[in-house]
Amino acid sequence: MARPIQIVPSVLPADFSKLGDEVAALEAAGVDLIQWDVMDGQFVPHLTFGPDVIAAAREHCTVPFEAHLMVYTPDVMAKQYIDAGCARLIVHAEACTHLHRTLGNINELGATAAVALNPSTPASTIAHVLDLVDLVLVMTVNPGFGGQAYISTMEPKITEVRRMIDDAGRSDAIDLEVDGGIGPATIAGATAAGANLLIAGSALYRDPEGLEHAVSDLRSRAEAARAAT
Ligand code: DX5
Fold it and tell me: What spacing in Å lies between the alpha carbon of 10 and ligand 1's midpoint?
């Protein structure tokens, strides 16, 4: 059975001077969970959220947190982000020499594990770790920045990953997430290709009618695209 459509905000465009209020506003707007774009300034140029920042925001809402670890050392950082309140850690396959071990360690630490694929990384990379994850993230931009253009050539890869998940008998256990350039004009293509968890940053914060409208509009567009497939 296909996993439900979920609209998940990236906190990257939020006002960093009041993150407690910002996550409370996202929860009030109806998001399913919140994604923290953790960047180490090495794997990607920016440096963003440390575990203490996430821990401070944790007290201001009740929806689950996931950390998108755009870092070269996920093994070193994993426990800190779990202790900060992240229920899921997403690591980049490109940053992991021993991806199978890294994912297993995250599970042993008590969080669920997930793997992200940059645009140039083939879907086959995750063929032997689907038993260790509850989410696969197909990046639809090159990581490191919000507000980039959606890379539509990733849609065949989204479909390939969806097929891999289904063929592994994990359709009801693994979410297929896409991240980057998701908005009113692109969410239907990503959903029709096979995604069910859609990350949005800029599209949520630039909606003139506010967060709640943005979340509801994106959800409606994704549900309609799924119904049409
Ligand atoms: C890239 C980031 C962005 C962010 C979403 O490293 O992960 O994709 O979450 O950005 P938007 O929705 O503004 O493209």
Answer: 6
Q: Which CATH architecture describes the domain 6-228?
A: Alpha-Beta Barrel (3.20)
**Ligand 1 pocket member 181 (CB < 6 A):** yes
Is 75 tagged catalytic? no
Q: Residues 3, 194: contact at Cβ < 8 Å?
A: no
146 lines ligand 1 (CB under 6 A): yes
pLDDT for 1: 64
Q: Is 37 a catalytic residue?
A: yes
Domain borders along the chain are 6-228
pLDDT of residue 130: 98
CA contacts within 13 A on the Cβ side of 118: 15
Q: Whole-model pTM above 0.90?
A: yes
